[in-house]
Design the sequence.
């Protein structure tokens, strides 16, 4: 995995190349996964070395970006369910929910600042938050998944 730090128009980005197969690169930008289609495949000599898979460290040893609280009942697998996406580019100013929270259709789940306006992003269905993919201060683009409700 190759990690890079970029600054675009004064905004810092942490970019990690996770995997490259042919002309498709799997990358993570500020912890948000993307698949990027390259115009030309990367030559073998330019390919990042694939990491050796190691067993996960115990939870106490890791410091996750957004730790999920222990749910009393098992939640749906992260990433399954209704994805709540950013309707426009902006900066996350407030998270109103965390993994395991129960939400109702219309509840505000995220506050997104765009063009100096605070925009309440609402749940599109009833359910339980199964994943939170952003943190306050993160910059997001239109269509980026913010949370998932299962």
Sequence:
């Amino acid at each position: 995995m190759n990690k890079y730090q970029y600054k675009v128009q004064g905004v810092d980005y942490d970019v990690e190349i996770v995997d490259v197969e042919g002309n498709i690169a799997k990358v993570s930008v500020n912890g948000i996964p993307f698949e990027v289609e390259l115009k030309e495949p990367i030559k073998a000599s330019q390919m990042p070395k694939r990491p050796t898979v190691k067993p996960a460290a115990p939870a106490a040893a890791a410091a996750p970006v957004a730790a999920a609280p222990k749910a009393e009942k098992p939640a749906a697998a992260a990433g399954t369910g209704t994805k709540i996406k950013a309707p426009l580019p902006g900066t996350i100013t407030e998270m109103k929910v965390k993994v395991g929270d129960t939400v109702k259709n219309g509840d505000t789940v995220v506050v997104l600042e765009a063009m100096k306006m605070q925009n309440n992003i609402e749940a599109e269905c009833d359910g339980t938050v199964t994943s939170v993919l952003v943190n306050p201060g993160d910059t997001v683009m239109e269509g980026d998944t913010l949370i998932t409700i299962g």
